[in-house]
Design a protein that fits this description.
8 strands; alpha/beta; 4 helices; about 170 residues; two-stranded antiparallel sheet
């Protein structure tokens, strides 16, 4: 009986750890290599999966966001994307732009972050046939601020958003 319990517990832990393991994925956007951790759904479903974008704050990184936010643990049916920002000038600190972050307004950094989000979304739509009515985004600090811009710009049209918690959680349609 002990070995059966051990086997069941080991199988559950191993399968859930494997199913929710983030995969580093790369895109080339305007000649620059960009990266994000992508977590595919840990459950199989016949319905189109939702997508959650989770942006780190200025000076943070995709690994920290993935560990701290861990949306895949709360919504295993979703594709979760933790993008990595590039060195970007901060509003208050880091005026030289030595730490990673996100653009906050149109045209800043040649819209490199908006183009990155569009490239990720295009790949997900093509590869996984995601549910276009269930594309969500959240961010911490600078990552949350950038969502206001991302939600109203871009060729992939994330035109409408609904704040669900202090302007840091947006739903795109």
């Amino acid at each position: 009986m002990r070995s059966l319990i051990f086997w069941v517990a080991t199988t559950i832990v191993a399968s859930s750890a494997f199913a929710t393991e983030p995969t580093s994925t790369r895109w080339t956007v305007d000649g620059a290599e960009r990266e994000a951790l992508v977590v595919l759904p840990s459950t199989s479903s016949k319905s189109k999966p939702p997508v959650i974008f989770a942006f780190h704050g200025h000076g943070g990184n995709m690994h920290f966001a993935a560990r701290g936010m861990a949306f895949e643990n709360f919504w295993p049916e979703a594709i979760v994307v933790y993008p990595q920002g590039l060195p970007t000038p901060g509003v208050i600190m880091d005026p030289k732009g030595e730490r990673p972050g996100w653009q906050r307004e149109p045209g800043q950094e040649h819209d490199r972050d908006l183009k990155f989000v569009d490239a990720i979304l295009a790949t997900l739509r093509e590869t996984y046939s995601v549910d276009p009515s269930r594309i969500y985004a959240t961010g911490f600090s600078n990552g949350g601020l950038s969502l206001i811009y991302f939600s109203h710009s871009g060729p992939m049209s994330l035109p409408r958003s609904r704040p669900a918690a202090r302007c840091c959680w947006l739903r795109f349609r």
